[in-house]
Amino acid sequence: MIHADDGILSQEQRLMRDSCRSFVDDVVTPFIRSNWQREWDMSPGERLPGAILEGAEAIGIRTLGVPEEFGGIDLERETEVRTFALIAEEIARGDSGLADKLVQNWKVSIVIRQFAAKHLQEKWFPRLLEDPKFLLAHCLTEPRGASDRWLPYNVPEASMHTRAVPDGDHWVINGRKQFISNGFDASLYVVYANTDPSVGMLQGTSSFLVPRETPGLTITKCNETMGCRFMNNGELVFEDCRIPADHLLVKSTALASAGQYFRAGKIIQAAKNLGVGVACFERTADYVQNYVQGGRILIKHQAVALRLADMATRIEAVRSLVERASKAVDEAHPDADILCNMAKVYASEEIMKVATHALELHGGNGAMLEFGIEKLFRDAAIFLHMDATVDVSRMKIIKNMFPATAGKYAGPET
Amino acid sequence: MTILVLAEHQDTQLDDATAKAISAAGRIGGEVHVLVAGSGCQAAAEAAAGLAGVARVLLADGPSLSNRLAEPVAALIVSLAGGYDAVLAPSTTSGRNILPRVAALLDVMQISDVVAIDGPDLFQRPIYAGNVIQTVRSTDAKKVLSVRASSFPAASVAAAAVPVEAVAIPENPGRSSFVRSELSRSERPELAGARIVVSGGRALSSAENFETVLAPLADTLGAAIGASRAAVDAGYVSNDLQVGQTGKIIAPDLYIACGISGAIQHLAGMKDSRVIVAINKDPDAPIFQVADYGLVADLFEAVPEFHAAVAEGAKA
Amino acid sequence: MKILVAVKRVADPNVKVRALADGSGVDLANIKMTMNPFDEIAVEEAVRLKEVGRANEIVVVSIGPEKSAETLRTALAMGADRGLLVRTDAVVEPLAVAKILKAVAEAERPDIIITGKQAIDDDANQTGQMLSALLGWGQGTFASKLVVGDKAIEVTREVDGGLQTVGLPLPALVTADLRLNEPRYASLPNIMKAKKKPIDERTPADYGVAVEPRLTVVRVHEPATRKAGIKVGSVGELVERLRMEAGVLR
C-alpha cells in the first residue's frame, strides 16, 4: 500500500508500527492462514493460543493506556489516540479478533486512569501488567439496547435497566449486560448503571469498577459471532452484586461529559476496520498478480485493475478520515465527537465494499473457507454493528451537528 | 598478468570448486598459479598441478595452516601477493572467510561472488539476492576476486602436470585457534558440486520423511540432498543442506524440488540449474514459474513412484 | 565488557528490487527500508550478552545517510545503550566502511565487535573480515553460536559441510549468520524509552577516511528470467521427458 508517512508520523510511531507489522507478518498471519478451521472448532478458552498472546505481550501491545508510573508505556499524550489507531490497524491486519481483545484494554485503561481512585489504580494496573491473560471489558449494552435507546429522547423512560443503588458504604448492582467485547474473559469490568431513574440517561448514569470475582456477578454466556471470532464476546448478569463505594468511577454523568473518553474507542474501532481493509487489499493484490486467466495475470484485465484501484482508493480515503479524526480527538477539538463517529461509520461501510471487491476478485476461491477471504468478509461485516450500528453512528453525527433541533437541546415537539 | 588462485581442498583431495576457479582465472587472461595451503595437503597440490591452464602450483604445507583458519592463510597470501596482479578464490565459506582479510591488508576493494568476467578489470556480480546483476570496473592496481564456482566450467585435466613448488609459510599471527569441527558425514555427493540435487521443503514435515521419502530417490540417482530454509528451520535436516540466498547457491544439471513452494530466497539459490523439476500439490506454487517440468501431485505419492521408475530404469 | 555492533540500513528483504531502465543503478524510490537482517541478529546477540551479565555496554554504529538514525533507533529499542551515526550520503564500499569502523573501534575500545555476515543489498560479505584484518584481531565469521569467556571467545561457524569452532582471544570480531539467534521485536515501551538514548553524529572526514569508491559501476541489469516450462501429467511422463528430452537421466 501507499506509505507516504514521512512528516505525518513521528520516528517512534513508525518504529512501533514496524514492530507490530513484523509481529503480525511473522506470527499472526501464518497462524490465521494455516488454522482457518480452528476459528470454528476452538472452545472459548482456547481463543487465541497462548503463543500468540505471549507474542503480543512481548511487543507490549496489551497494556497501552497504562500510565508510565505504573509500569506502562510513556506514549506522548498529544498523539496518543493517533498511535492507538496505528497499532490497532496493524494488529487487525493480522486478525481483528486479536486486535479487539487488546484494544479493549487500552480504552478501559484510559477510563481507569482518568476516574479510578489512586489506590485502585495502584491495585489494578500492576495486576494488569503482571498477567498476560488479564483483559478488561467495557459494559454498556443491555438486552434492551444501548445508545439507540436514548438517542431519540434523553428521557427517564429510556434509561438503562441495570440499576445501582447505594447501601451503606456499598453500591448494589442488578441487571444484565450483553454483547460485551472481552465480556467472557475479562478480569475487571467497567460497568454502566442507572443511579437516578427520575432523570434522563445522560444525567442519571454512573460507572463502576467491578472485579470479575465479585459475588453477584455471573458470566452467563460466550456469544458465538459471525466474525471477529478470536475475541470472546460475552454476557453478564448482576444479582445483588455489592461493590465498595470507592469503586464508583463517575457519578451521574458517566455518559455525558465523561463520554469524551469513549472517543478513543471510536477511532480504534475505525482503525481496526481499516486494518481488515488493508488485509483484503494485500491479499487481493497478491492474488491478481499471480493468478492467470485467459492467458494473462488477472491484474492485466482492466475490469480487475479498476476494482483493485477502487479498493485502494477507498482504503486511503478511510485512512485520511481516521487520521483527521484521531488528530481532532488528540487535540480535544470541539468537532472531535462528530469526526470520530464519521470515521467509524465511514470505515465500516467503505471497508465492507473493499471486502466485497476482495471476495469478487478471488472468484470461486473467495467463497472457500480455507482461502481466508470469506473470513475477512465476515470480520468486515461485524464492524457495521460493533460499538454502535452505522445508523446510530449517523444519528450521533447529526445530534452533534444540530444540537438545538436534533441534539442535546431538542425535546418533543409540543 | 599473473593470477594467484587459492585452492579449495580437503588436504587429500582437491574440490571441484578449484577447477572452476582456475577456469575463471583463465578468462581474466595471463598466467595462473594455484596456492594449496594446508597441512598434509601434497595430494591436493598434485591434483591441482594436473589441471589444464595451471602454470605453477605453490604448496604451503605446515601445521599452522591446518583447518585453514583465516588469519594465517591471509598472512600467507599477503606474503605472496607482491608477485601477482590478481588474487582469486572460489566463494566457498572458506574463500569468503579468508579473501576479504587479504583484500583489506592489501588495501584493495574486493569484488565478491563474480559470475562473469567481461575483461581483465570488468566483472559481473549479483546483488540483491541475484535479482540484479552489477557490472563493475575495478580501479585497484591489484584485483582481489571471489568467484561463484557454479558459474564457470571446471578446468579439464592437462596432458602433463606442472611441478609443485613449496613456499615459505610466514609466522602465524596467532589471533585464532582451531577448537573442533563437526562435519556432517554423508556418503552422498557434496551439495555444492553435485550433478543432481533432490531437495525437500517443509511439506516433507519430518526428518524421518527426508530419509524415507527423499533419500531413496537421491541415492538411486547418485544425487545430493538439499532443503529449503523452512525445512532447515523446522529441524528436518542440518543447516549445511540449505539451498538459497542465505544457504548454498548451486547450479546442478538437474534440480528436483519436492514440496518446495519456491520463495524468492530459495530461487536465488537454484535458478541457474540446467533443468529444474518441481513436484508440488499446490498448482499455483511459485516454483512452477521457474520449473522446466512441473508435476502437480502429492510428493508422498509421486516421489516413491519416481524412485521406482528410475530404479527400474537402472536395472534395465 | 563493551560490545560494538555495526548496522546498515538496507531495502526491506521482502521487496523485489528492480534495475533502473537505463542501467545506471537500482530503483529504490519509495521502497521500504529496514535494518539489514543479519545486523538485527548481531544486535540481538549483543543484547543477550548484556542480559546475562556478560556485557555492560552496547554501542551501535551505522554509516549512511541521515535516515540511518532510524536504524540506530531500532537497535536502541532492542536494547543497545547508545548510537553513533557516521553520516554520509555517498555510497560507501566495504573497505571504506571497515576503515571508518576501525577508527571507531580505536576510540571506543570494545572487547567484541559483532556485525552481520553480509548486507543483503550489495551482498559483499566483506566488512567484518576486513575490519578484523585492519585491527589485527581474530575473526569468527558466519557464527551460529558464540560462547563468551573473560579473556577469549569460542565461535561456532557455519562452513561448507558442517560446523567449525574456533577460539579467539579478546578483543575479537564476530559476524552473525542466520541461526545465531532469533532477533526480538522492539517492544513499544522500549521504543519510547529508546527516544531518550543518545545518538552521536560524525562524518567519515572526522575519522580521516576517504570514501571515494574503488569500483565503478558500469551497468546494472536484471538476469534473464527463467521461463516456466511445462506441466507433466504423470510421473511416467516426467521420467520419460527427463530421459529423452532433457537428457539428464540415464
Automatic annotation (TrEMBL), chain B:
Subunit note: FixA and FixB form a heterodimer.
- Ranges for domain Electron transfer flavoprotein alpha/beta-subunit N-terminal come to 3-182
Query: Which keywords does the record carry?
Result: Electron transport, FAD, Flavoprotein, Nitrogen fixation, Transport
* A Pfam short name: ETF
Tell me the function of this protein.
Answer: May play a role in a redox process involved in nitrogen fixation.
From the Swiss-Prot or TrEMBL record, give the protein name. Electron transfer flavoprotein subunit alpha
Provide the leader sequence positions: none
Q: Which PROSITE patterns match?
A: ETF_ALPHA
Q: State the similarity comment.
A: Belongs to the ETF alpha-subunit/FixB family.
| CDD domains the UniProt entry points to | ETF_alpha
Residues annotated as coiled-coil are none
From TrEMBL, chain C:
Question: Which Pfam families is this protein grouped with?
Answer: ETF
Give the highest taxon in the source lineage. Answer: Bacteria
Q: Which SMART domains match?
A: ETF
Cross-referenced PROSITE patterns: ETF_BETA (PS01065)
Annotated CDD domains: ETF_beta
Q: Which UniProt keywords apply?
A: Electron transport, Nitrogen fixation, Transport
Gene3D superfamilies documented for this protein: HUPs
Q: Which residues form the Electron transfer flavoprotein alpha/beta-subunit N-terminal domain?
A: 23-211
SUPFAM superfamilies reported for this sequence:
Adenine nucleotide alpha hydrolases-like
InterPro entries in UniProt: ET-Flavoprotein_bsu_CS, ETF_a/b_N, ETF_b, ETF_beta_N, Rossmann-like_a/b/a_fold
Q: Which family does it belong to?
A: Belongs to the ETF beta-subunit/FixA family.
Q: Which PANTHER family does this one have?
A: ELECTRON TRANSFER FLAVOPROTEIN BETA-SUBUNIT, ELECTRON TRANSFER FLAVOPROTEIN SUBUNIT BETA
Q: What is this protein's function per UniProt?
A: May play a role in a redox process involved in nitrogen fixation.
User: Partners and quaternary state?
Assistant: FixA and FixB form a heterodimer.
Q: Tell me what this protein is called.
A: Electron transfer flavoprotein subunit beta
Q: What is the species of this protein?
A: Shinella yambaruensis
| UniProt gene name | etfB1_2
